[in-house]
């Protein structure tokens, strides 16, 4: 009987000790490793890769191969808006019919831009044994969809629906500061109509950050001397 009471008292003491430790140690320390890893992954997957610019109606040699081809010279651009390097392997791009047009690869550094041309898409499609259709961006309007495949799940990351104004010859559409507000970059083919979006006079910037620097006026050494030296 004595031994039974000793066992009971010992178990009670252990229970009290465990209770005290649970109060002192923060509950986060008891989160299972799998759950902690999942939380970190979810935070990393918050849409850092964004579509940044699209040119659907090329009228010149945009891919730099020396030959103009309306399919090969289409292009689109993505940018890493996050603060960490991004593995592009899970990302794909399609148009409105949901056909995969390009599978990304490599690492994209924070703030960096990646250009994908129609010729790049064709080369990859042939290497994978697919029909070479390029990016298949319709000039009359289309939807470009950026999505991610991870552990069998597919999630849309970003998309952009453009219209016939944006899809006209050598005009691109993209965003400057706010990813939710897209503009028309129409320097090579000015738009003067009343539709939306209105022209900005900015030039397309394939493979570079979108921007529209203030125009500079032409000048000569004679004009500079007249302005600063009184013509001497």
Task: Describe it.
By secondary structure, the chain is an alpha+beta fold. Helices cover 23% and strands 25% of the residues. It has helices at 2-24, 33-44, 118-127, 221-229; strands spanning 49-55, 75-80, 86-87, 91-94, 100-103, 107-108, 113-117, 142-150, 153-162, 172-175, 182-185. Strands 7-2-1-10-11 form a 5-stranded antiparallel β-sheet. The protein has a 4-stranded antiparallel β-sheet with strand order 5-4-8-9. Strands 3-6 form a two-stranded antiparallel ribbon. Strand 4 and strand 5 (100-103) form a beta hairpin. The longest helix has 23 residues, at 2-24. It is globular and about 50 Å long. The protein starts with a helix and ends with a helix.
CA-based shape:
globular
Which runs of at least 5 residues are low in confidence (pLDDT < 50)? 1-5, 7-11, 16-46, 215-232
Which percent range describes the beta-strand content? Answer: 15-25%
Q: Roughly how many Å is the radius of gyration?
A: 29 Å
Q: Could you spell the SSE succession in H and E letters?
A: HHEEEEEEEHEEEEH
Lateral arrangement of strands in the main beta sheet: 7-2-1-10-11
């Amino acid at each position: 009987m004595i031994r039974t009471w000793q066992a009971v008292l010992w178990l009670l003491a252990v229970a009290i000790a465990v209770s005290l430790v649970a109060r002192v140690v923060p509950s986060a320390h008891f989160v299972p490793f799998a759950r902690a890893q999942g939380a970190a992954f979810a935070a990393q997957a918050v849409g850092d890769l964004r579509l940044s610019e699209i040119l659907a109606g090329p009228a010149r040699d945009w891919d730099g191969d020396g030959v103009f081809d309306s399919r090969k010279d289409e292009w689109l651009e993505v940018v890493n808006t996050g603060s960490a390097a991004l593995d592009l392997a899970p990302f794909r791009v399609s148009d409105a019919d949901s056909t995969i047009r390009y599978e990304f690869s490599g690492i994209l550094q924070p703030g960096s831009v990646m250009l994908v041309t129609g010729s790049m898409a064709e080369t990859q499609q042939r290497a994978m044994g697919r029909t070479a259709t390029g990016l298949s961006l319709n000039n009359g309007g289309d939807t470009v969809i950026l999505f991610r495949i991870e552990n069998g799940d597919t999630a849309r990351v970003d998309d952009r629906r453009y219209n016939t104004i944006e899809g006209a010859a050598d005009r691109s559409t993209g965003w400057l500061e706010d990813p939710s507000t897209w503009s028309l970059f129409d320097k090579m083919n000015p738009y003067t109509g009343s539709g939306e979006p209105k022209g900005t006079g900015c030039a397309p910037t394939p493979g570079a950050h979108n921007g529209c620097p203030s125009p500079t006026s032409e000048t000569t050494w004679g004009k500079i001397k007249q302005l600063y030296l009184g013509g001497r």
